Amino acid sequence: MTLTHIDDASSSTTSSSTEPAGGFAGRLRDETAAVHREAERAGVIADLIRNRATRDSYVLFLRSLVPAYAALEAALAQAPDSPLVAAFAAPGLARLPALTRDLAALAGPDWATRCAVLPQAAAYGAAIADARDDVPALAAHAYARYLGDLSGGQILKPVLARNLGLGPEALGFYDFPALADPAETRLAMRAALDTVPVASATADRIVAEAIAAFRHNIAVSEAVQRAVAG
């Protein structure tokens, strides 16, 4: 998604025969599979999938993604020249502009003051900001976000349109008009990950940080659900 979670970042069910098999991308997918499944079933994400969410909960969820994307895209813009990071900094991937436009369409131009930042969302953004000079950690956070947006986010978009009655002006977050071929972009991301030796300290670092990223996503999703229920 992810949105983050309804994606193929840790599931092989949507992989085609043209996608890289094995290598570090496969290890990363496999070792994040359990926490990824947990994220799919957590908090407001589960509510959105099962048609239990409201517009208010979706607005708060989008608002809660802003700190993460702001930190991630600022970090990618100034990241060292690295093949590992370059694939995740491709022109057209950035989500923050579309995210803020969707929020304006749903909550008005003053959405930033009307919708408070939840502590869990701020903590997620801070974790990414802390990784700005750590290429493996930054790649892990980009992996957790962008592969979900390119894959599961495309599944979630029609669900939101149908269940919440959202029009195109509120669903731009899921559109990638500047990417000629999103599938090729996903392949490039996995190819970049496969440049990392499977058994290495760098690989271990990416796996650990990707798991932490999914944990942050779970915390944000559950916090949104609690805030709306309360």
In short:
The protein is mostly helical and 230 residues long. The protein has helices spanning 23-31, 33-40, 43-49, 55-77, 83-86, 96-107, 111-114, 119-130, 135-150, 152-164, 182-193, 201-229.
Question: What does this protein look like?
Answer:
The chain has 230 residues and is mainly α. The chain has a single domain (23-229), classed as Heme oxygenase-like (Heme Oxygenase, Chain A). It has helices spanning 23-31, 33-40, 43-49, 55-77, 83-86, 96-107, 111-114, 119-130, 135-150, 152-164, 182-193, 201-229. Helix 1 (23-31) runs parallel beside helix 12 (201-229). The longest helix has 29 residues, at 201-229. The chain is globular, with a radius of gyration of 16 Å. The model is unreliable at 2-20 (pLDDT under 50).
Using brief descriptors, characterize the structure shown.
single chain, 230 residues, mainly alpha, Heme Oxygenase, Chain A, 12 helices, 0% strand, disordered N terminus
Number of strands: 0
CATH class: Mainly Alpha
By CATH's scheme, which homologous superfamily applies? Heme oxygenase-like
> Structural class of the secondary elements?
mainly alpha
Question: Distance N terminus to C terminus?
Answer: 25 Å
Any idea what the radius of gyration is?
16 Å
CATH architecture term: Up-down Bundle
What is the succession of H and E elements? Answer: HHHHHHHHHHHH
Query: Approximately what portion of the residues adopt beta-strand conformation?
Result: under 5%
Q: What can be said about the biggest beta sheet?
A: none
**Number of structurally distinct domains:** 1
CATH fold call: Heme Oxygenase, Chain A
Average pLDDT over all residues: 90
Q: Judging from the principal axes of the Cα atoms, what is the shape? A: globular
Q: What helical percentage do the residues reach?
A: 55-70%
The stretches of 5 or more residues where confidence is low (pLDDT under 50) are 2-20
Number of contiguous helices: 12
